[in-house]
Amino acid sequence: MWGWQSTGGHDNPATECGPASTHTDQSGDNTLIEVQQLTKRYGPFTAVDGVSFNVGKGEILGFLGPNGAGKTTTMRILTGYMPPTEGRARVAGFDLQDQPVQAKERIGYLPEAPPLYPDMTVREYLRFVARIKGVPPGEQASRVASVMQRTHVADMANRHCGKLSKGYKQRVGLAQALIHNPDVLVLDEPTAGLDPKQIIETRELIRSLAGDHTIVLSTHILPEVAQTCQRVVIINKGKVVAEDTPENLTARLQGAASVYVEIDAQGADAQPVLTAVPGVTAVAIAARHGASTGFEVQSEKGLDVRRHVAQAVVGAGYGLVELRPMRMSLEEIFLQLTTTDAPAEEVAHA
Amino acid sequence: MRNTLAIARRELHSYFSSPIAYMLVGLFALLFGWMFYSFLSFFSEQSLRMQQFGMGGPQTLNVNEMLVRPLLLQAGIIILIFIPTLTMRTFAEEKRSGTIELLLTSPLTDWEIVLGKFLGAFTLYALMLGLSALNLLWLFAYGDPEVAPIVTGYLGLLLLGAGFISIGLFLSNLTRNQIVAGLLTYAVLLMLLLVAWVGEGAGPIARGVVSALSVFQHFEDFSKGVVDTQHVIYYLSVIAFGLFLTARSVDADRWRG
């Protein structure tokens, strides 16, 4: 996928460090963000450790990881807020350390906390951002109007930023990132702190921005990644532990199949019945709802035990309240990847 | 340049959308007016006495020497109290609220940010001084003071204040707490004032060194109506050094993260 790789594997590796101009040419083949072996150390603490990834034009990349995994640090390096200790980041062919101004002209950034000046009205603030982002004076007013429209903050145009609700602050933050129509959008937890309706609106907005813009967004909310992103990079303790599409990640980690069964009986009574079903490898109590108990039944891979489970339960004289297959959610994959080391390695090299 | 002006404009906007600008300008006008009044009444009392006793016949009191000069010297000390209030929020507040992240990820150079902030604070300071000059118009209405010492005195005050502002900017960038930034600036500026006093009692060499370095010693000549390039260069160096330190510390913060 990297431009310089596609020119031939045995090529002189020096091409990799070639002048930025060659990379500008190569970004023609769609790679807009190149991150190579990014490392950031704070004294003895390593926040980001050798992170590499690429994002193609118009793609939405989800950056996933628990709090403190190094998401924000990576994004700050990617936006030129701080330099990496080692490694390179290139946006639209411009190296963030060699040509920071050119690179930053092409990046819109929404930090974790929207960087608003409380003493300015929304319109004044967006005008100011338009000025410092280099929007030509003649276009500033129309850009401000169009991003306010797009992010649905036009009705708050004359309200002071300090007096906005959390949802509006977030949207003004997004408007600010869009103001100079950047090629690349970097959004650090864009839906944090919003109510469910606003979350849905924001996700829709982000999806509608893809295509024109290349988007990198970080989050620790998993369904968000599944719903918005085409590709996911999972990061833990500063390292990339997996990189793939949400579907592939789910499929790849789908190990043993499991079924959720809720039975109208007290826990311990029904457990032997389920364990006795052929093909079942493990049974665990997952939930208790009054008189009924929920079990998680695991079975051998590729074997559908639902029919047998249902027969066994009814045959034993219990009421079957619920029976459904349990797909491994992205959430579980995430936990699996970020809490144990072994499966993480497996996925990374799969 | 356009970016610098954009930053400066935002700085002024934030001064004027809070009570800070009005407090600074208003209080300075009040203090300056009061000082002016007390020097003026002292002066008119003295000249009345001179007339009554006819001491020295045709000799008259010099309004520049007896009024304008001590007034501007005092104003130089008064601004020491005002400048920290002006500069303490410049960087500290941006760091606290996270808006510094917007500035540092925008296509701006560190110098554009620093100069923009300097220009914003300096403009408000110049306004503050400019209003105080209105008091002196009375002297022209009822007397005949020399213009040159007044103009150079104000030039000196502008340079002195600009030097203080550049120091204040640097100190504001060292912390995310406005109060800490303000107190630090007070301490440093007071030290610069005290250094001059300490020098008075020292030996000739030490006195020479101290007075060469002291911010206030260089101001004295301006109030006498003399523009010595040595002093101008001194102040320009102080300003440049302060701004340089600020720009370096903005960059250093990047590395620290």
What does this structure look like?
The complex is a heterodimer of chains A (350) and B (257). Chain A has 350 residues and is of the alpha/beta class. Chain A has helices at residues 3-6, 20-26, 71-78, 100-105, 122-132, 137-150, 166-178, 196-209, 222-228, 246-253, 267-275, 306-315, 330-339, 342-349; strands at residues 31-42, 45-56, 60-64, 86-91, 94-95, 107-110, 184-188, 214-219, 231-236, 239-244, 258-263, 280-289, 292-299, 320-326. Chain A has 2 domains: 3-106 and 182-252, Rossmann fold (3-Layer(aba) Sandwich), CATH 3.40.50; 255-326, Alpha-Beta Plaits (2-Layer Sandwich). Chain A has a 6-stranded mixed sheet with strand order 6-7-8-3-9-10, with helices on both faces. Chain A has a 4-stranded antiparallel sheet with strand order 2-1-4-5, with helices on both faces. Chain A has a 4-stranded antiparallel sheet with strand order 12-13-11-14, with helices on one face. In chain A, strand 1 and strand 2 form a beta hairpin. In chain A, helix 5 (122-132) crosses helix 6 and helix 6 crosses helix 7. The longest helix of chain A is centred in the middle third of the chain and has 14 residues, at 137-150. The model of chain A is unreliable at 1-28 and 341-350 (pLDDT under 50). Chain B has 257 residues and is an all-alpha fold. Chain B has one domain. Chain B is built from 11 helices and no strands. Chain B is globular, with a radius of gyration of 20 Å. The model of chain B has no long low-confidence stretch (mean pLDDT 88). At the A-B interface, helix 4 and helix 5 of A face helix 1, helix 5 and helix 11 of B.
Order of helical and strand elements of chain B: HHHHHHHHHHH
Number of helices of chain A: 14
Q: CATH superfamily of the largest domain in chain A, please?
A: P-loop containing nucleotide triphosphate hydrolases
Report low-confidence residues of chain B grouped into runs of 5 or more: none
Descriptors:
heterodimer, A: 350 residues, alpha/beta, Rossmann fold, 2 domains, six-stranded mixed beta sheet, 14 strands, disordered N terminus, disordered C terminus, B: 257 residues, 84% helix, 0% strand, globular
